[in-house]
Amino acid sequence: MTSREILLNTMQRKSNPGNIVPYTIGFDCPALEEKVNKYYGVNWREKTRQFIHSPFNISTTREIHIGNDRVRDVFGSVWRTDKLPWHLETPVLPEPSFNSYVFPSIYDFVGTFEKSDMKKYARAEIKSNPGLFRIINMGWGIFEQTWRICGFENTMCNIAAEPDFYAELVHRITDLYVQMVEYCADVEADAFLFGDDWGSQTGVIIGPENWRKFIKPAWKRVYDKVHEQGKYVISHSCGSVYDIIPDAIEIGLDMLESVQPEAYGMDPFKLKAEFGDKLGFWGTLGSQSVIPFWKPSEIKEHIKKLKAELGRNGGYILAPAKPFQPETPLENAIAVIDALTEV
Fold first, then answer.
1. 84-124: pLDDT as tens digits
2. Are 131 and 3 in contact (CB under 8 A)?
3. Measured at the alpha carbon of residue 167, what is the angle toward residues 112 and 98, in degrees to the nearest 5?
4. String of DSSP letters for 212-229
5. Do residues 260 and 283 touch, judged by C-beta distance below 8 A?
6. Cis peptide bond upstream of 163, omega within 30
7. Distance (Å, rounded) from C-alpha 343 to C-alpha 18?
8. Angle 142-150/152-161 helices, nearest 10 degrees?
9. What is the DSSP letter of 211?
């Protein structure tokens, strides 16, 4: 079977022949990646099987450099870039008012794509990688975009004290996301991947009720548009989203990505037992626990268990919850790669 056929089975929560469990691997540390390549004597990708390809990316965070290690994003907020993670220095709407603010249009995001014919590029990429599962990557999400516009603390205050303003802000952002999805209707991809960190380590950042009030109906509009195109919905969220998983399923989420097992309620084995007949999971290998701190032999046994239990009846892509971090011991990174690539 091709990688794409395996992933399509996985998304439909069907078992693959030979109980193949697809996987992905990523690095957030070039130095560690170089050590891994040196260990294998080849680029680590040559040892792994590729399952997923992203031929088309729409950036919701396009920026222009304005000097002094500063950039201005497409919404107008100013960010410092001299230290990581980047710091939101001046939100464009620090007060709960739109006043004379002109909201970006879809053309502010896709205008450059039209000029460079990115759709033509995407189709060429798809044609040259026919055996891979095709994902359109949409980057930052609706909730995240609200605090990128207003500032994080201001956003928390707006939700509590200025709900009408916040609801209108979410609505306008959602309009843009719906238009972006519609723009991609003729791109022959299999799925959309959205990113929107809803969870902290202990629960939903704005609380389940506020999430249901403001964010849930917004994403339902977007997910519906994706499904109208016959594509799957994959959403990334860090942290604990256990309390709203039934809601995410209700509005059409097909697969949850990241699944940090250290966060409240996010034990992958329990999630599979409770929701595995309705929702797929991508990730689950602990980047705060298993990967940096366990012994290589323990890591391999854990991955074997993940494959056997979460891979049952499909609906599972095995991956580190986060790309390999700088503190990852080389021997542990090797143990993960070896265990993932064992058939």
1. 778 999 999 999 999 999 999 888 877 655 545 677 888 88
2. yes
3. 65
4. IIIIHHHHHHHHHHHHHT
5. yes
6. no
7. 8
8. 100
9. I
